[in-house]
Amino acid sequence: MSWLALDASGAKAGLAVLADDGTILHQVFAPLRPGLIETLPLLLEGAAKAHNITNIAVGTGPGSFTGLRTSIALAQGFAAAAGITLWGIPAGAAFAIPFPQLHRPLWVVLRARKNRVFLLRGGPAEACADAELPNPGTPIALAGDEAPLAAATLAARGADVLLTNARAIDPAWTARAAQARLASGLPPLPAQPAYIDPPEAKLPAAGLRPAPQ
């Protein structure tokens, strides 16, 4: 019995297969571009052939619009075809896995776009300008690809911050977060992408081309 996890919310996609006890049986990474839509199904197919997959977990972000859309759709299709349980795992829950005993709240800061970050601090994900990060009222720890920037910004204001070494999600964390929910008797979270900002793609000024005849 194995858990398969996908996460493509960051700069690259990751896939991992874990045993019920959390042991990593298989792990692979791939760039988001070019060709994630073609590459990720092949990686999943290879993992599924080599292991008896009984649960699948997928990262729900926030993060890359294309990565989330691709990985979640693939996980949904695989779960439906295999008749197995699908677990949606938010980025904040995945980042918390390697730090079970921080003794301070964990803030995750991720790059959204130029001059704008996503902030995860226990509740719904937020977005704010780089210079408008809120001041923490207590000592905090920081993770995510923009954690160094956030640490410098908040420390300059006198905040007590601990910079962790977690920059990108390991898909094994995604699987272990799902395993932890199961062990705690909690139901699966929906596998729906956490879109905080609208996609940057815009419709052409002249509108869409007419459908071919």
What does this molecule look like?
With 213 residues, this protein is an alpha/beta fold. The protein folds into two domains: 2-91 and 169-183, ATPase, nucleotide binding domain (Nucleotidyltransferase, domain 5, 2-Layer Sandwich), CATH 3.30.420.40; 99-163, no CATH class. Helices cover 29% and strands 29% of the residues. The strands form two sheets. It has a five-stranded mixed beta sheet with strand order 3-2-1-4-5, sandwiched between helices. The longest helix has 18 residues, at 65-82.
Helix and strand layout, with pairings?
Layout: E1 2-7, E2 12-19, E3 24-31, H1 36-50, E4 53-61, H2 65-82, E5 85-90, H3 91-96, E6 106-113, E7 116-120, E8 126-129, E9 140-143, H4 147-156, E10 161-163, H5 171-183
Parallel strand pairs: 1-4, 4-5, 6-9, 9-10
Antiparallel strand pairs: 1-2, 2-3, 6-7, 7-8
